[in-house]
Amino acid sequence: MTHSPSTPHYLHLTEHFQKIAHFEHLSALGDWDQATMMPIGGSESRGAAMAELARHIHELKTDCFIETSIEQAEEELLDSHQMSNLREIRYQFMQANVVPADLVQAKTQLAYRCEHAWREQRANNDWQGFKPNLEALMKLVKEEASIRAQAQELTPYDALLNKFEPGMTTKRLEHIFGDLKSWLPGLIETVQGLQAGDSKISLAKYSARSQEALGRDVMAYLGFDFTQGRLDVSSHPFCGGVPGDIRLTTRYDEADFTSGLMGIVHETGHARYEQGLPKEWRGQPAGGHRSMAIHESQSLFCEMQLGRGEGFLTQIQPKLRKHLNSQLTIGELNHIYTRVKPGLIRVDADEVTYPCHILLRFEAEKGLVDGSLDVADLPEFWAEHMKSLLGIDTRDDYRNGCMQDIHWAVGELGYFPSYTLGAMYAAQFRFAMEASLGPVDELLAQGNIAQVFDWLDKNIWSQGSLLTTEELVKRATGETLNPKFFRRHLEQRYLK
Amino acid sequence: MTHSPSTPHYLHLTEHFQKIAHFEHLSALGDWDQATMMPIGGSESRGAAMAELARHIHELKTDCFIETSIEQAEEELLDSHQMSNLREIRYQFMQANVVPADLVQAKTQLAYRCEHAWREQRANNDWQGFKPNLEALMKLVKEEASIRAQAQELTPYDALLNKFEPGMTTKRLEHIFGDLKSWLPGLIETVQGLQAGDSKISLAKYSARSQEALGRDVMAYLGFDFTQGRLDVSSHPFCGGVPGDIRLTTRYDEADFTSGLMGIVHETGHARYEQGLPKEWRGQPAGGHRSMAIHESQSLFCEMQLGRGEGFLTQIQPKLRKHLNSQLTIGELNHIYTRVKPGLIRVDADEVTYPCHILLRFEAEKGLVDGSLDVADLPEFWAEHMKSLLGIDTRDDYRNGCMQDIHWAVGELGYFPSYTLGAMYAAQFRFAMEASLGPVDELLAQGNIAQVFDWLDKNIWSQGSLLTTEELVKRATGETLNPKFFRRHLEQRYLK
């Protein structure tokens, strides 16, 4: 007599998604390698291999058995975790299945070409060259948005948001960002007033090699396990790989070690999240990260909530002395890491002005998708908004204006809000954590960083996607996203 | 009116094999990464991902449409190159299709486990631990050999040889190796007599870093294009990657730079072959390397035919001075690189004693496959043959005896002969080349190494698998494999 499983359809689905995870493993490896190791001669065949792989994964995710199996699995007796997994399976299937394979392929190919050209066009400030590529790509983005919107009964821009942030809507973002817009410019002005006349601390030059040694030491302090991942160099820092083998990258500026170092702290936050995802759910949709905003909340928790605090700086200052022979005091480090200054570049922005870059992009994306903003009018739109939000003149500087980010060059709209949502979640998590553990800064100063990570592990990492974002945040903090904590955090740190 | 292709079945096959090549690209990347970059934490999920990929590739290679499409393509009007490609498609299909998927998977899994355990067992000289694993694996190897043999009307060992060396037979090898056995032991004895009393040249210690700089310089001298590949470190040197992105590895011994350096020269020979394969046939079976013996002939051409010659040493001696600040003279380098001394380890052997290691393994493999040699009797067999071939006592030293190579630990029998066939082809190619270009050694001394590679490119590399091995060698040298050139080469170099 053989046992037949009581949940055959659910099991079949989990096996299928485990298979998909194996191919996604290879996709992650290909991406990482391309950014860190691959010589230029490999581009063509890698591009073709990755496109083939993406197509295969798309085919697997839209396999015709899935839809009916989901329906049948819904009748099976599943426990609550299995039900969560089935919910995520359904979501992934739906996200993949609504878009025709031809559109996926056309967009992938165009995005690849557009990005490739953008790298040089950006360096040359060549807006005229970039514009037609972006226009062509935007056509496909609109088509994708409209197809996704119809299938999900959402507005087109909401449908794009939902690729990264399941459940997020334009309306909710407008509410959250509207509030932000009401107080942030004032705060920036106040802080700038407080910081006016500060002298700039000059930095010595340090080799990439010694900066890397410092970075590894700081990663180890942040609990990164080097038997479960790597640190390498790429022109744009990122965190890739797979749980068990998380690969993060940074870049080193010999004249300014502070940005490379904080880049490592940021990516280590992403890495710890991935490494902390529930091992028993590896390879299943329920075992993946919850959303991009939650992912960013973990990196920003490390970089902003911990990394700018005195407790953290107290701990890493001896490491700076050891690896760089730097004589910077904790006070000087604190000074460096809390300067607020409006600038052109999003990725170089401090945590106070950063959301302005997102507000601008959110408005632009809405316009690009609903047709009220043409690609041709983007530079003017950019200049106006940079002027009003940050008081900066960006006219004719396309390179450091609307051409600065890779997201649009690869046709990904809807991602940007995740950064600021992440910063908000990070602040909310810290306040919730402090309600039970006491001030995080003091914990770190006392050498108790492990308690901080234990909280994150228990409340965020180990939950994977077993809960919805709303449930996750409510269980961890007692309420859903509440932007007031972000405001409180900034005011505490910058108005003192 | 649309054009329909006049060779639809052939075209369909080429598209399908191009697709397979894309997945093989990812397989090559996964292998390379595993050996060079992957942290231990990645093993489990990588193993699973690679097995999934191997299975997918096997499914693609045995897709049910292929057999009939080949038959129909054979009726189409193909040019001679297309016919060659169809021949190679047929060969690859047949090699994959004759083995049941279950056996492939069972052998892959067992080989993975056996190799994993072998790494530690070898270090511990643990023959008793290795023996049952090897016995289990050998059962599957025999099953594979017998299935392949039946399908191809070959003997079982011939069927294994044909995985690496299409067309090669035990009978032919017995003839070739029988000849070798008749004169090689005598030559070894004579050379040892000539070299008796030589003083050993002591080497200074050099950091891995400076050895790497030297290695890169030598690779560039050998025409390696670093925009088309990389050099890294792994515990076992190999040449991997894909044309356009060839990745070779070496290992550095601080106390002896000479072996790491010649390892690089060897792998660069493999790399140039891969880089020189016909670009217009990339992704098609006709565009791949001809056979493993031809592959080894290219690495051994660089390492042995060029690398041990005075012309080559004249060119690299200034590089040694530059990177290592080494004061070794050309004469001393020549002395170091032409010492003949029987030893336990195949990969450390000089070119004169090396074939004895292959003769032993060839006899052992035949016995293991036809059942006349039991795994349990392998150590005794090994000791006897090492004694008679090289005069060395290996009893109880399993680690440096029958457990030294990875090949059997992963269930690959039939490969070893390729090494010595490669050495023979390399010698034959040099003599043929010299008939038109004059002494290679002099060309190199005059800085004309490009002419040597031009010859190889024209006659070997650019031919891919468009010709059979027999045709290739005959066109390049005027005759098929003739071992007399190898003998002549050794006598010229070592009896002077």
From TrEMBL, chains A, B:
GO molecular function: carboxypeptidase activity
Main EC class the enzyme belongs to: hydrolase
SUPFAM superfamilies per UniProt: Metalloproteases ('zincins'), catalytic domain (SSF55486)
EC numbers for this chain: 3.4.17.19
Keyword Metal-binding: yes
InterPro entries the UniProt entry points to: Peptidase_M32_Taq (IPR001333)
Protein family according to the UniProt entry: Belongs to the peptidase M32 family.
Protein name (database record): Metal-dependent carboxypeptidase
Organism of provenance: Shewanella psychropiezotolerans
Upper taxonomic lineage: Bacteria, Pseudomonadati, Pseudomonadota, Gammaproteobacteria, Alteromonadales
